[in-house]
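Continuing the batch. This is chain 6 of the set; chains 1 through 5 are on the previous pages. Same settings as before, nothing changed between runs. Recording input and output for traceability.
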Amino acid sequence: MAEPIFRYHLMFRLDAPEIPVNVIALLRSSGPTQAVIWDRPTNAWAFRPDVATATLYMESEHALTRAVDRGTAEREALHFTTVPLPTEAELTEICREALPRWLRGARK
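Output for chain 6:
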């Protein structure tokens, strides 16, 4: 079986560390951080490497994370999303389509 392309992390609020509030799907890559999370304002899975980086790699004052397998991420996402966690192919496509726009915006 092939190694997953993404790693999954559940996000928790500090005041409720037992209830997941989001999923970070982090692309395994040696390049720039590429990640997809559930975006509440748009009700869609969105390319948000900024949120992933701030949450996973910097000490966060607002959130905790825990690495989980894909099955756990899929089950937990059903509690706070209206759309199931995309397949790895769909997550890859979200990153592929968004990265050029994201980099152009970051250079301004």
